[in-house]
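Tutorial, part two.
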Amino acid sequence: MSEPDFWSQQDRAKAKSQRLDELKSELQRWEQIERETHDLLAIAEEAERENEHTMKAYFEEQLQKLQKTFDSLEFYILLSGEYDERNAIVAIHAGTGGVDAQDWAAMLLRMYLRFAERKGWIVRVVDESIGNEAGIKSITMEVRGRYAYGFLKAEAGVHRLVRISPFDAEKMRHTSFALVEVLPEMTDVQEEKIDEKDIRVDTYLSSGHGGQSVNTTYSAVRIVHKPTGITVACQNERSQQQNRETALKILRSKLHALRVQDQQKEKQQLRGEYQEAAWGNQVRSYVLQPYTMVKDHRTKHETADVASVLDGMIDSFIEHYLRLTVKK
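Running the prediction step on this input gives:
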């Protein structure tokens, strides 16, 4: 930051400045808990010399507070992957299950929005396809916040819901599926250059929230990468050019993830292998009837409090996943 030309590139300089502030804040928290631990230890040693036993309850209370603070700091050590601190691109696709699956995709969307809200993250919808009767067919969104990808990468995979369908007049139990894709935002990946000859760009009428031009101009953009078949759409920006830039950014992220997968044996490090949103592929099951349970099939972690999980309280599932992957 002391270089004379540091502020010549505003976006890079702002990112570096923000990174410095975050590191300073994190370091201060570790230094604070270190000071408090030493102070409490000194007081305890003095009480022991004075044969003072009346402060036992005080020491236990302070120790519990320090342990809680330490546990929260220790959790961030698990977020040490190359891309964990980055923003995330999250896509949800309704799978097998018809209208129930589309409704399930909307329930997952609400769960992640609530989770992001608690983290203080910013969520921006890039593309959305609404279901004909209920819910959503698919949605792509940007989640902006420190460690957004590090947290949300645990959610990648097929999610299975078992419940009595509200769309079934006979009130039968139905099973539906939705696929969640999670990618790190790759805004600064210069090596992922895209040859214009390799892409096909289609424009169409936007149905998003772009402003006055929605449904009157062909501002929505769909980009198809012909060599890989990857398709990215964006319709919620205000202009065709903005939609094109956003779609290209997401395409670069997907191409980068694909390249990393090809280079590494652990193909689920970034995005995970593509799985059909159907029987036998689920990473997590949510059962509402005849009993209540959410179970992660990778970590075996489970809870009966389905309501809290669907309200965005998914921290314990993420922590168990991160601890499992760190061990590996």
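Confidence is low (pLDDT under 50) at residues 210-214, 265-269. In part three we will examine how such features are distributed along the chain.
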